[in-house]
Design goal:
Elements lengths: L1 H55 L3 H8 L14 H12 L9
């Protein structure tokens, strides 16, 4: 009797675990599919934006600033790139004079 109850409990736990695993895999697959769609949309938008700025003859530093995410917050785990972002934004507004134009 004790062994039968133990086997039933193990079978119930196994069924429960399989159901939870299936739910997790389904949600993971859905999340990945959604993320892939979002990434494709973002990439197409960036490509379109890059082509538009290239055609319009915009300041090259303005194009560089458009490619970086200036709104992200600093993560303590990663390297702080705030100074680099500030420099790129400064170059966007006041590009340096090239030697060829002198």
């Amino acid at each position: 009797m004790k062994e039968d109850a133990e086997k039933e409990a193990n079978a119930a736990r196994k069924d429960d675990a399989q159901a939870k695993l299936k739910d997790w895999l389904d949600s993971r697959k859905e999340k990945n599919t959604r993320k892939q769609k979002d990434n494709r949309t973002d990439e197409a938008e960036k490509i379109r934006s890059a082509e538009d700025s290239k055609d319009s003859g915009a300041n090259s530093w303005a194009r560089v600033v458009d490619l970086i995410d200036t709104t992200s917050e600093v993560d303590t785990e990663k390297r702080d790139v705030t100074r680099m972002k500030d420099l790129l934004i400064q170059l966007k507004h006041k590009p340096p004079h090239s030697a060829a134009s002198s």
